[in-house]
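Comment thread on ticket #2218

A.B. wrote:
> Attaching the input chain for the structure job we discussed in standup.
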Amino acid sequence: MASITITGSTKPPSARSAPAGAARAQGDPFVPRMLLGKRLRELREAARLSRPRAGLAVGASESKIARLELGRTRAKPGDVGGLLDRYGAEPDERATLLALAEQTGARPWWHGDGDIVPRWVRDYLSAEQAAKLVRTFEAQFVPGLLQTEDYARELVRGLRPEDEAEVERRVEFRMRRQRVLRRRPRPLNLWVVLDEGALWRPVCAPTTMRMQILHIIEQCRRPNVTIQIAPLGISGQIAGDGSLTLVRFPQQGLQDMVYLERPDNAVYPARRAEIEHHWHIFNTLVTEAAPPERTPHRLAQILATY
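C.D. wrote:
> Ran it. Output below, let me know if you need it in another format.
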């Protein structure tokens, strides 16, 4: 779950603020793009139009229509208006969708730190902040949303040695992500299945690991956080080599996101069968791991060995 995503350019962040006079919508554009794209696809299909024929209405290519429908690009209100005319949208819905189109031009919450955020993790970071539920399995490291500052700091130093100011900037970004667990009035619900091996892996000093384990025990007390410890090496038996994260949104009609993080990239399976397959994997992990109520006791046992 973006647990080790701490790579990227180290050049100074020249785009931390919008240029003078630039008008920007407020809020992250990820959900507006997804909602707008979904509805544009439904309207196009109801009008029995192919993507190439729909594109003729606004002078756009088939690939551009596909990107709009998949929520992968900013939507210009003029283009959306032309498509809605072609689809015969009702006036009330037209107003709603044009408002969504305006929101797709907002800067994402991570924009000011875009130089340290790899392109392949950006959609996930936006989805994480918009989600109502994130379920994640980690085999290698403590998930990013549960990391202490010291644990994150040692990961950054170990995987990408940099000057101290850059290290601290990356750690601060990780801590800012975690605010979603404390947001009001609806904090993110987080369900973690953690391979026990991640707690034995020598990625940081013993003192740091002890504090990290104590932090996880503390997080178990949160009503919106569920943590299970899975047997050593379970990922090789069930989930393959890497993390698995499932994101569910509060908005009706948005399908779940599957995020598979790898060392230098990520995969976002989007077909319904693929999403259902990964839900099945996670549910299997849940049944194989110890029940959540046993997690503090198991963590205390591990803590006693450090």
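A.B. wrote:
> Thanks. Noting for the ticket: The first strand starts at residue 133 and ends at 138.
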